[in-house]
């Protein structure tokens, strides 16, 4: 057997022994998602155990260096782990902005002390992060941020406001862009800092969306003390860190197009519409649309793998994340449009037990934000036109 075959056999055996029954199968509700953090809430004891076991092995961040708590796996081994997790239909052991966004930025720009302090806690799900980027006057034009950090010697005093801060009301810490040189051009004079959300002067206010949920928040900073040791990268060069992180955020949002955690659209449609005499979905038009979606999802999954290999080999174009973000967002929106079509009038129910609290309609409405968060679709298309296609006038 090759080394990779041995790794697959060992991984399969470990997962069979250590993956609890409660986390095998599609995620039925948002309550089953594992976010970790100091105030973590778990749907079942099995969900808590799953995080503990995967975190201890470093497999919540399988390709991160083992010295920082990661799995230390090669790209090929990480693919094997992912395929074995899919085989047993395991739910993600950890959903984490720390893993998806901050961790890669710390690995690239953080000091050795910051890596050793924060990365192991992120891997084990002990610290939950939120992102302090957008402001009321700085959305797509992110470099226009006005939240300021005043130098007080060994620390800064931060004042300002952020908006669309996902899960800020549940986060332990925030990674935040602040303006440290108000006289510099807008892309300069920005710094990237970290601080505890329990620091005096930090307040959050959830924003209720059309879906009825409140994943986004307004976040206010009033004379918040931020220690100088929590500066990531170089003072006034936070835009470099921000761009690096945005590429990972956009790839993360795009990965929604893979839809690994939910029930297959075809199964949902079969339950709602029923089967014909031949055993197939009794709606040929809907059946064709689902087939188109599944083909596109499979192609997108392969594209994600290819880009991952290119990133590992340092051959990926910096703008490729915009392509993944745009296409993955559209795929996820298409998926939920089909779920609504399959459910018909029943999918429009908002509060009944049959509709699981209106989850189909609420989730469908939530996907509309996919083409806004992380940079609007229009911004992504402009980046693709200018940097990938090099179109004249772009």
Could you describe the 3D structure shown?
- This protein has helices spanning 3-18, 45-57, 75-87, 97-109, 112-123, 238-254, 265-273, 284-312, 320-343, 359-366, 377-388; strands at residues 129-132, 148-151, 155-162, 173-179, 190-196, 202-207, 216-227, 231-232.
- It is an alpha+beta fold and 394 residues long.
- A four-stranded mixed sheet has the order 1-4-5-8. Strands 2-3-7-6 form a four-stranded antiparallel sheet, with no helix packed on it.
- A hairpin with a 3-residue loop joins strand 2 and strand 3.
- The radius of gyration is 22 Å and the shape is globular.
Keywords:
394 residues; oxidoreductase; 42% helix; Acyl-CoA dehydrogenase family protein; alpha+beta; four-stranded antiparallel beta sheet; 13% strand
TL;DR of this structure?
This protein is of the alpha+beta class. It has helices at 3-18, 45-57, 75-87, 97-109, 112-123, 238-254, 265-273, 284-312, 320-343, 359-366, 377-388, and strands at residues 129-132, 148-151, 155-162, 173-179, 190-196, 202-207, 216-227, 231-232.
Order of helices and strands: HHHHHEEEEEEEEHHHHHH
Low-confidence stretches: none
Radius of gyration: 22 Å
* Terminal Cα span: 52 Å
Helix/strand/pairing class, anyone? Answer: alpha+beta
Q: Helical stretch count?
A: 11
How much helical structure, as a percent, in the residues?
40-55%
> What average pLDDT do the residues reach?
90
Kindly state the number of beta strands: 8
Q: Numbering strands along the chain, what is their spatial order in the largest sheet?
A: 1-4-5-8
Q: Could you give a short account of the major beta sheet? A: 4 strands, mixed
Shape by Cα distribution:
globular
Strand content: 5-15%
């Amino acid at each position: 057997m090759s080394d990779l075959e041995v790794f697959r056999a060992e991984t399969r055996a470990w997962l069979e022994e250590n993956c609890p029954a409660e986390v095998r199968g599609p995620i039925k509700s948002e309550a089953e998602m594992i976010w970790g953090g100091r105030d973590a809430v778990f749907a079942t004891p099995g969900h808590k155990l799953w995080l503990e076991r995967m975190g201890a092995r470093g497999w919540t961040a399988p390709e991160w260096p083992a010295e920082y708590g990661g799995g230390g796996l090669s790209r090929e081994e990480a693919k094997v782990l992912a395929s074995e997790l899919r085989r047993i239909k395991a739910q993600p052991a950890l959903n984490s902005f720390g893993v998806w966004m901050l961790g890669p930025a710390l690995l690239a720009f953080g000091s050795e002390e910051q890596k050793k302090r924060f990365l192991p806690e992120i891997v084990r799900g002990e610290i939950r992060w939120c992102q302090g980027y957008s402001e009321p006057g700085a959305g797509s034009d992110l470099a226009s941020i006005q939240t300021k950090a005043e130098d007080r010697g060994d620390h800064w005093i931060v004042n300002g406001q952020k908006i669309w801060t996902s899960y800020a009301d549940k986060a332990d810490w925030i990674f935040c862009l602040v303006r440290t040189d108000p006289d510099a051009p807008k892309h300069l004079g920005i710094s990237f800092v970290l601080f505890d959300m329990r620091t005096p002067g930090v307040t959050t206010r959830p924003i209720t969306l059309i879906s009825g949920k409140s994943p986004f928040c307004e976040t206010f900073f009033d004379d918040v003390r931020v220690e100088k040791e929590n500066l990531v990268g170089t003072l006034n060069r936070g835009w470099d860190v921000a761009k690096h992180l945005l590429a990972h955020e956009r790839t993360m949002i795009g990965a929604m197009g893979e839809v690994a955690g939910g029930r297959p659209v075809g199964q949902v449609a079969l339950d709602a519409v029923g089967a014909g005499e031949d055993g197939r979905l009794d709606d040929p038009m809907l059946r064709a649309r689902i087939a188109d979606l599944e083909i596109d999802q499979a192609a997108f999954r392969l594209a994600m793998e290819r880009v991952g290999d290119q990133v590992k080999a340092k051959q990926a174009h910096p703008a490729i994340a915009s392509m993944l973000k745009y296409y993955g967002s559209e795929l996820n929106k298409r998926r939920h449009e089909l779920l609504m079509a399959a459910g018909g009038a029943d999918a429009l129910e908002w509060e009944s037990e049959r509709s699981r609290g209106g989850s189909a309609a609420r989730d469908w409405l939530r996907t509309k934000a996919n083409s806004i968060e992380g940079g609007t679709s229009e911004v992504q298309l402009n980046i693709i036109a200018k940097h990938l296609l090099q179109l004249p006038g772009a």
